[in-house]
Sequence to fold (125 residues):
Amino acid sequence: VQLPSGEEHDLILVGVEGCSTTACLAGWAAALSGWHPTVWTDGATTLLDWEVVAPVPLIPSDHYSTEMVYDIAWALLGITDSEAKELFSSTPAGCSAGHRWTADDLRAIGKGRSVFTDEWPREDS
Fold:
């Protein structure tokens, strides 16, 4: 594939770099709204980077039109910065590393439940 910069890369060799959470909420919010991962090249390695997104595909991560996925998702979802910090982390604050957001949690949040842990059951309850 030829990048907008004129560079050519074999997509078979393209890896994916993310923010270390699987299918994170910020990445999904951006992807479902038409944003794309950017391309980051380090010598012979080319990665698709979901931490930095662009309005069109295959833009280099340092291009002027890119945005941090956190900022895009925060705006798209219409949530506060503190809600975004809690929601975009893979582990809710105050919970052990064993608890992750579940599909039921996300559905409850979508229906208006707060993302803050003071409103979620503790492990000892």
Observations:
- The helical segments are 25-32, 69-77, 81-87, 103-110.
- The first strand starts at residue 14 and ends at 17.
